[in-house]
Amino acid sequence: MNEKVLMKGNEAIAEAAIAAGCRHFFGYPITPQTEVAAYMSKRMPKIGGVYLQAESEVASINMVLGAGAAGVRVMTSTSSPGISLMAEGISYIAGSDVPCLIVNVQRGGPGLGGIQPSQADYFQATKSTAHGDFHILVFAPSTVQETVDMISTAFELGDKYRMPAMVLSDGMLGQMMEPVVLPEAKEPDNDSKDWAVSGHGGKREHNVVNSLYINPQELEDLVKARFERYEVIKENHQMAEEYLADDADIIIVAYGSSSRVSRSAIDAARKQGIKVGMIRPITLWPFPEKVINKHVGHAKAFLSVEMSMGQMVDDVRLVVNGRVPVEFYGRTGGVIPTPNEVLEQIVRINGGVQ
Amino acid sequence: MSDLNVLFAGFGGQGILFAGKVMAYAAMIEGKELSWLPSYGPEMRGGTASCSVCISDKAIGSPLVVNPDVLVVMNLPSLEKFENDVVPGGLIIIDSSIVHKKVARTDVNVVYVDASKLAEDNGLKGAANMVMLGRLFKETGFCSAENLDLGLQKSVPARKANLLDSNRKAIALGIES
């Protein structure tokens, strides 16, 4: 096993991707994600990989499409406005059934917004990344170690289902250091994708990777087949952590940085005798409906805590479906909620659920 | 000691983030759970810099220290900004070479260390951050002396290994202060 080291979340993303056999990185700098690219620019040339700073995010994501179509593990990373610029390319990648890893180290928005941590890109990541009917896998780590572990899972599931995978981090998780044990490094596997456009050598039919289908019926069939795959993913790959949820009257739903704030608030509330717990979505798409559904009943109220004006709360409400109240607390624009603020919400709701 | 939340604050360039990093590494070697969170952005360029270090026996919740148990402060704007956030009964360690103001609160413990002057008088200009860390170590005992030194060794990059001894001396000055 590798030695435990102290690493920034952003650097850990880069090293974990290399350990997962990624040798192709295309990107464009933006705070607070720049350490990912900076780290890659130092490491990739030493291990025979490609680091390329493109002229824009638009160019980066199209390079990702090209490398992914050729069958290699490829990634890009950016922060919120950068994902908006990449939107068209992400849709092309999804429409071409090409796997890749996209990292979003979120910052405050809209517009250029700010550079402090945010979770205001939930809708963008899970519902409307770009035009057309499609989904991408979305993973939300809450510690540096989990970020590392998730990178290889994201690559593997992306490859398995031939679709883009996103790791949705934020400025806090990207900039902070925590102890981490890196996984054993895997060699790149560039030859196992039999659909890839990597040269047929005159030995097989040539492959085509494409997202243009002029015939509506052909396109509908393709999209429907893709949505059947999405159902398999929803059935098999929902991930969430439950924290003190089994006896909870109130359940907080929170992911990433806001789940850490919530965890501190829950510990404080438990000391006051309030039965509160948490469901922490690890996959945001597929959304962990099953585990939330399981707790409706003994949980008499849900509280979605986010660093946004309230986005994931819609998905919680869809699962709870009116059976118990679903409330929301959030800060936005780069402001991180404090444990005390969340505790006040817990105390307030607890007054109503006794 | 189960939980210790420390906020280091000062000017960019004083080694605020580095002091926090040495503490974080030492705590890791000590076998604790920990997090290190810097302020980032334009304030790093000559303005104020701060970093949160949380040490605990269990998983760290919020890594952002809002109400520090200990505030290690190396400039006046940071003292004015964070003084009232320290928990009652907490500790403020001040570099009194730079900050001439006294703490107004009476419900916290305050230690004044002539850190920048001590460093300079001993030929260790620029190592006041390590003097402050030494004093923090003396006041809180957040790890063993051996692990503090190992934490320092881990934090100083190989290409700057020549600075290891001066940092060690500065930490010792803080412990003796």
Descriptive account of the structure:
The complex is a heterodimer of chains A (354) and B (177). Chain A is an alpha/beta fold. Chain A has two domains: 4-236, Thiamin diphosphate (ThDP)-binding fold, Pyr/PP domains (Rossmann fold), CATH 3.40.50.970; 241-353, 3-Layer(aba) Sandwich (Rossmann fold), CATH 3.40.50.920. Chain A is built from twelve helices and 14 strands. Chain A has helices at 9-19, 34-43, 57-69, 80-95, 122-126, 144-161, 171-175, 216-236, 256-271, 289-295, 312-320, 339-353, and strands at residues 4-8, 24-27, 50-53, 74-78, 100-106, 137-139, 164-170, 177-181, 240-243, 250-253, 276-281, 283-285, 301-306, 326-330. In chain A, the strands form three sheets. Chain A has a seven-stranded mixed β-sheet with strand order 3-2-4-5-7-6-12, with helices on both faces. A five-stranded mixed β-sheet of chain A has the order 9-11-10-13-14, sandwiched between helices. In chain A, strand 13 (301-306), helix 11 and strand 14 form a beta-alpha-beta unit. Chain A is globular. Chain A starts with a strand and ends with a helix. Chain B has 177 residues and is α/β, with parallel strands linked by helices. Chain B has one domain (3-176): Pyruvate-ferredoxin Oxidoreductase, domain 3, CATH 3.40.920.10. The longest helix of chain B has 14 residues, at 16-29. Chain B is globular and about 40 Å long. The mean pLDDT of chain B is 94. Chains A and B meet through helix 7, strand 8 and helix 9 of A and helix 1 and strand 2 of B.
